[in-house]
Design brief:
This protein is of the alpha+beta class and about 190 residues long. The chain is about 40% helix and about 20% strand. It contains 7 helices and 5 strands, in the order H-H-H-H-H-E-H-E-E-H-E-E. Strands 1-2-3-5-4 form a 5-stranded mixed beta sheet, covered by helices on one side. Helix 2 packs across helix 7 and helix 3 packs antiparallel against helix 4. The termini are far apart.
Length: about 190
């Protein structure tokens, strides 16, 4: 981490930041065709379920990912593909962060809940764990979390109705709530 340990010029800082942001964008461009098909044909929750299944296939994340529970709220996912894609990217990042960092695999009752809900056209995707938690201060500009920044950048691709709310405390777990007001499909020019 030479760039992190030394004072660097603003130009190099900008380049480093751009490279870090592009990491997530490149990853999501390379999403398996089967995921894109599931997202298009079966929806957001089915695609996130498939994502968790792929984590269970890896030795490193098997134990924690086996503790992901999907809470069914019977939501009509009549979302444009662009919205589904963004919320898949943000949701999978939040799930991956919970699997990697929450410590639910070290707790007897540890779990990660994934809930999609809708009320009056406003959708919410909640990823909540009862793991270790962390100190999160959105106003602290020194806070560096590439996953969180990546989620914010993905949401910025949509209109101003999309929001990311993170609540976490050490010992109390973490809750990530991604919410948005969906436009009717007919209002979108193309998916």
């Amino acid at each position: 981490d030479l760039l992190m340990s030394q004072k660097i010029s603003p130009e190099l800082q900008d380049l480093r930041d751009a490279l870090l942001r592009s990491r997530t964008s490149v990853y999501h461009l390379l999403v398996e065709p089967s995921t894109k098909m599931t997202l298009a044909e079966e929806g957001l929750i089915a695609s996130l379920y498939q994502f968790v299944g792929s984590l269970e296939d890896t030795r490193k994340y098997r134990q924690a990912s086996s503790r992901v529970v999907f809470i069914d709220r019977v939501v009509n996912e009549n979302l444009p593909f662009v919205e589904r894609s963004v919320f898949y990217n943000v949701g999978s990042e939040a799930i991956l962060n919970a699997v990697k960092y929450s410590g639910v695999d070290y707790k007897e009752d540890g779990e990660i809940k994934v809930i999609l809900s809708e009320s009056n056209g406003r959708f919410s995707l909640t990823i909540a764990d009862n793991g270790w938690g962390f100190e999160y201060d959105e106003d602290n500009h020194d806070f560096t979390a590439y996953g969180i920044n990546s989620m914010k950048e993905q949401l910025a691709r949509l209109d101003d109705s999309a929001s990311l709310d993170i609540k976490s405390a050490i010992g109390a777990g973490t809750k990530v709530i991604i919410s948005w007001k969906s436009l009717p499909i007919k209002d979108h020019l193309t998916d």
